[in-house]
Specification:
Helices cover about 50% and strands about 10% of the residues. It is α/β, with parallel strands linked by helices. It starts with 14 loop residues before the first strand and ends in a 6-residue tail after the last helix.
């Protein structure tokens, strides 16, 4: 089923396609099909696929798939290294420019919505972190809890508070810190800066997801068990045994990896690890869908229908791109 269609009439800009969707929605299969039938090249928009040696739990495309449809921005960073949103935007823009120069269309595929937002809307020029203010906020949070700090944010910046989950202390802290330093709400500063570095491409947004939430939940549960059968625990054990990684690093905090790490660390038994891994993956999908519903210029596609008729998405992509010849 198709809904929420609105065309982009800016014809002087080069085209790009964003294929977005929640985890386990079937994005990779659709992307590979498009790469085989359209003049596109895939750029991954995924904050876990960037890491080396994190293949099973990230659902990274295998070698055979990558031979058919190469992906940029995957498998290039050691799990001990940090990678910022600004670095992703820089690398993605460089990749897009190279693909466009080759006469092809960038196909950006993934589920890391923060990366998509930074790429499509630009990054705000926000004040640098202030350790003194951060310590004050952490002390307040220790006293009243992060949900109460989220309530405080609602009063100062209701727009940012609506986007940030009450159980996301890192983003709550940053939003409150920005308010304290600048005297302006985070959402206001972001809006001011968005116009200055908006993406200079004619972007077609395609969102792929099962229409029924229950179907997505089933896919998530099935895929998690498949990952375990494929050796996910051994994969995390290799990372665990390195000795230079810990559970607070972005790589190990990734959904699934954290839960298996806790199992290896004796914090969970096997059944608890499996149950929690599935639950947090469903929670991730819920957050992703919340972000995706704010994408007004998007074409929503039922992944069940697209799986049986993948040629339809090719025609829809061509139509959205004003029938660019292939």
């Amino acid at each position: 089923m198709i809904k929420n269609v609105r065309s982009n009439t800016t014809t002087e800009l080069p085209p790009a396609i964003c294929l977005m969707g929640p985890t386990a929605s079937g994005k990779t299969d659709i992307a590979v099909y498009l790469a085989q039938h359209l003049p596109v090249e895939i750029i991954s928009v995924d904050s876990v696929l960037i890491y080396k040696d994190m293949n099973i739990g990230s659902a990274k495309p295998d070698a055979d798939t990558l031979a058919i449809a190469p992906h940029r921005l995957i498998n290039f960073l050691d799990p001990a290294q940090a990678y910022s949103v600004a670095e992703f935007r820089r690398d993605a823009l460089d990749a897009m420019a190279e693909i466009t120069a080759q006469g092809k269309i960038p196909l950006l595929v993934g589920g890391t919505m923060l990366y998509f937002r930074a790429l499509l809307n630009g990054l705000s020029e926000l004040p640098a972190a202030d350790e003194g203010i951060r310590r004050q906020l952490e002390a307040q949070a220790a006293d009243i809890g992060w949900p109460a700090m989220h309530d405080k944010l609602k009063q100062l910046d209701p727009v940012a508070a609506a986007r940030i989950h009450p159980n996301d202390p890192q983003r709550i802290q940053r939003a409150l810190e920005v308010c304290e330093i600048s005297g302006e709400p985070l959402s206001v500063l972001q809006k001011k800066n968005a116009v200055k570095n908006k993406l200079a491409y004619k972007v077609t947004r395609l969102i792929i997801s099962p229409e029924e939430r229950a179907i997505l939940h089933q896919r998530i549960e099935r895929r998690f068990h498949q990952m375990l059968a494929a050796g996910f625990i051994d994969e995390v054990k290799t990372l665990y045994n390195r000795g230079d990684l810990n559970i607070d690093m972005p790589s190990i905090r990734a959904v699934g990896y954290r839960q298996v790490w806790e199992y290896l660390d004796g914090q969970r038994d096997y059944d608890s690890m499996v149950e929690r891994g599935i639950v947090v993956t469903r929670q991730l999908a819920k957050r992703q869908l919340t972000w995706l519903r704010s994408e007004k210029d998007a074409l929503w596609l039922d992944s069940g229908e697209m799986a049986s008729r993948p040629q339809d998405i090719k025609q829809l992509a061509l139509k959205s791109l004003n029938h660019i010849p292939i």
